[in-house]
Amino acid sequence: MAHDHDHDHDHSELPEMDLRVRALESLLVEKGYVDPKALDIIIDTYENKVGPQNGAHVVAKAWSDPGFKKWLLEDGSEAILSLGYSGRQGEHMEVVENTDEVHNMVVCTLCSCYPWSVLGLPPVWYKSAPYRSRAVIDPRGVLSEFGVTVADDKEVRVWDSTAEMRYLVLPQRPAGTEGWSEEQLAALVTRDSMIGTGLALSPGEVAS
Amino acid sequence: MAHDHDHDHDHSELPEMDLRVRALESLLVEKGYVDPKALDIIIDTYENKVGPQNGAHVVAKAWSDPGFKKWLLEDGSEAILSLGYSGRQGEHMEVVENTDEVHNMVVCTLCSCYPWSVLGLPPVWYKSAPYRSRAVIDPRGVLSEFGVTVADDKEVRVWDSTAEMRYLVLPQRPAGTEGWSEEQLAALVTRDSMIGTGLALSPGEVAS
Amino acid sequence: MNGPQDMGGLQGFGPVVPEPNEPVFHADWEKKAMALTVAMGFTGTWNIDRSRYERETLGPVNYLTWSYYKIWFSALENLIKDHGLANGEEIAGGKSIAPAVPTKRVLKAEDTAGALAKGGPVVRDKAGAPAFKPGDDVCARNLHPTGHTRLPRYLRSRRGVIHKARSAHVYPDTNARGEGENPQWLYSVRFKATELWGEGANPNDHVHVDCWEPYLERI
Amino acid sequence: MNGPQDMGGLQGFGPVVPEPNEPVFHADWEKKAMALTVAMGFTGTWNIDRSRYERETLGPVNYLTWSYYKIWFSALENLIKDHGLANGEEIAGGKSIAPAVPTKRVLKAEDTAGALAKGGPVVRDKAGAPAFKPGDDVCARNLHPTGHTRLPRYLRSRRGVIHKARSAHVYPDTNARGEGENPQWLYSVRFKATELWGEGANPNDHVHVDCWEPYLERI
């Protein structure tokens, strides 16, 4: 019945935004409010340094080291800091564990809050109206679009990031990975598995 | 803080809509689904025949004839029909009386329901997001924008037209109109006074 | 559907801006869009509840940016397509390609004044007695259907008092889906503004809303 | 504000559409928009809650149609204007006309890595004890402020259970208005999906939401 969905971004933003951003950058540099080299460092940080590989490291370590896992679930911020990940949009971390009884999934219905320090910047879909609106009222419908089916008798627990707490999902460790190294395990940990819209890959899904 | 409001209609609709409407009209006439002369009658009816003058007649009669007023408040549909007003979007009428204790105001938060048979087609503002959103949560704010102040200790009663019931406000009769004819009184009854976003005019506000 | 049509209680749309000396129509196409909507409604191919649902599902941004007659007209095009009265190519070109489909009725010029004056009453006979009477305390149910409903979101789980028990009216939730008129008792329910909007509201103010019996539960 | 940002529970936006192999940025201007937002945030001229409110008040249609970085950037331009760091003519032209205004800080290249790694913690000392403890039954208050709030509409008047009592955190409702950090106890509150969305929801499902103490009342 709904014929047209209209939520796609306006892909003609480019020329206008290119001009506006260049103008503002020039102005703010000229006024001395920003240091252009600082901008380069910020961009390099989030484009190349901070990303889901950080989170995958955290998860693989938790899978490998029961003591670390216990610490991680009790004090996410400190345990994650011990691996060198900290800072903006990750100041206050809570790690939530997927189990046989609970599947966790993270959203920010009010804006785009996301654990930058361990996952980097959020993908467009995470910030989109369909995800933000539906994650809380229809989480199983959203999960099924991501190919994730959760049994009816298992809890889906959605974390709405309304405060400065940031959530990282600790996915379940796939079967058949006994004796794997942290590095091998990290390759199974997708970004979506740490948002809760995916599961960790099984050994058969990665090129070995 | 809000810099730009963006709720104005797209005034460039004209050329596109002109084409689309002409195309559909041709098609539907060619298919025999609509009689073009029927379209002319529908347009003439709502452009020239049905309008707030109908409601003003109803209100002036109620002000002049206590028996009619009683009937009108008890069975709005029948009393209004007795004056010759009926039909589409006025099948089930309820007339709500403004008093010293209650000020009534009508909205349709879910679409554009409006008592066509007595007021004609609704103005754009009645169908607009600002009115539909605010009438129920901030009726006094809306009223003040229309220049209507209701004392804090007087009830503002908002009627949200969610069903096929249609509401006509019976405004309070202005002071200083003793002995006026129905015709004179009708000239005091504005459209907005019958929606509840206005009051009836006082004798001094009309050219006498 | 908690869709873009469900505007009651939203904030941030700015002031209400009446247009001085507003004409009934702003362009000729608006007249025709209105008249075509009314005339096609009289064919009996769909009902008013389905029309409303079609308007609600044009897309949130379209709903917020299009003029109301553009919403009506776009929904009309879709209704015509959905019900097989014409296909998209015919609508785009304005020329008939496929044969016409018989409709229940066609509104003829000579019947138009009478049909407009008659309208489409929705009161229906219903056996049994209404569950509630004036003065009863009720609560609007916490329903979030994905289809058409006329229970606005701002009422969900809110308590009110039955102000008037009305007749049985066609039930939009099923009628919009083509599942029948399924008449249900209708009530005017009186809600305190403070119940709906909290302590900041004026304690004297109320909102009266027409609710069908399946929208309500006893408290 | 019951504004366009308050999306939880809305219907009709269609499916979630992930982009395969999505890049971190889709255009160079997005990189700069992000970096300028971060760098200007570090000047200390406004706080993150004010930034969020500025994004929420760009207009509902703009909010729904603009990409997220366009929202960020447009809000940044407005913040700069509102705080007198530059005027509209300067922003449009990209050239300084009026003298610069001193800011609390400027983020220098050599401090950037450290500043990003430090972030902006919001936990604050607070005297006294929290009102609630884990296991307490609470109800989200029915608040409809016209300003910034982080209590989503879908929680208003809904009952939950305190899952965790956290530290005192900066309170967005006052901080966004420049009325101070006003730290308040923060709680993770567990709400049943059936409480939020009615009987159609899966009885096993829950939504956990961080709520400041002023958002809650005991039941």
Description:
The complex is a heterotetramer, with two copies of chain A (208 residues) and two copies of chain C (219 residues). Chain A is α/β, with parallel strands linked by helices and 208 residues long. Chain A has eleven helices and four strands. Chain A starts with 12 loop residues before the first helix and ends in a 13-residue tail after the last helix. The N terminus of chain A is likely disordered. By secondary structure, chain C is an alpha+beta fold. In chain C, strands 1, 2, 3, 4, 5 and 6 form a six-stranded antiparallel β-sheet that branches. Chain C is globular and about 60 Å long. Chains in contact: A-C, A-D, B-C, B-D, C-D.
List the helices and strands and how they pair.
The complex is a heterotetramer, with 2 copies of chain A (208 residues) and 2 copies of chain C (219 residues).
Chain A: H1 13-31, H2 36-49, H3 52-64, H4 66-74, H5 76-81, E1 92-97, E2 102-107, H6 116-119, H7 124-127, H8 129-137, H9 139-145, E3 155-160, E4 165-170, H10 182-186, H11 191-195
Parallel strand pairs in A: 1-4, 2-3
Helix pairs in contact in A: 3-4, 8-9
Chain C: H1 28-41, H2 48-56, H3 60-65, H4 68-82, H5 88-93, H6 109-118, E1 123-124, E2 137-140, E3 159-169, H7 172-175, E4 184-192, H8 193-197, E5 206-212, E6 216-218
Antiparallel strand pairs in C: 1-3, 2-3, 2-6, 3-4, 4-5
What is the arithmetic mean of pLDDT of chain A? 94
Q: Please give the number of β-strands of chain A.
A: 4
Order of helices and strands of chain C: HHHHHHEEEHEHEE
**Mean pLDDT value of chain C:** 97
Backbone structural class of chain C: alpha+beta
Helix count, DSSP H or I runs of 4 or more residues of chain C: 8
- Morphology of chain A: globular
- For the termini of chain A, the CA-CA separation is 46 Å
Largest interface: A-D, 84 and 94 residues
What is the radius of gyration of chain A computed over CA atoms, rounded to a whole number of angstroms?
Answer: 19 Å
Largest sheet of chain A: 2 strands, parallel
Specify the oligomeric state: heterotetramer
Residue share in β-strands of chain A: 5-15%
Low-confidence segments of chain A: 1-5
Low-confidence stretches of chain C: none
Count of DSSP H/I helices of chain A: 11
- Strand percent estimate of chain C: 15-25%
